[in-house]
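Progress report, Aim 2. The chain analyzed during this reporting quarter is listed below.
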Amino acid sequence: MIRPGSALWIAVILLIGYAMFQVKYEVAQQDEELARLNRQIAATREATRVLNAEWSFLTQPARLSALEKRYLNLIPIGNAQLGDLAAIPQRQAAPALASAASVSP
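Predicted structure tokens for the chain:
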């Protein structure tokens, strides 16, 4: 017959073994999650590098100038297009407050 102390130690060993299995399983899941996140970070960094290269290509001054000449046909502003300062109406003076001293906070 198994003594109560031996049965207790067997139960403790089984519980510790089960706990170790659970911890090992959880660590394996965390490792998989970490690997997945690292792959996602690497993919995001690669996509960022590609987008930066595209941005550098698309914003080259020579390319923008050629596109502007082809599609916009812009010309410099002439003096005739600018108005005269005298044509701008002057702002009216602010009305004076009737009694600024009688207003209390």
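The helical segments are 4-58, 61-71. The two ends are 94 Å apart (CA to CA). These observations will guide the mutagenesis work planned for the next reporting period.
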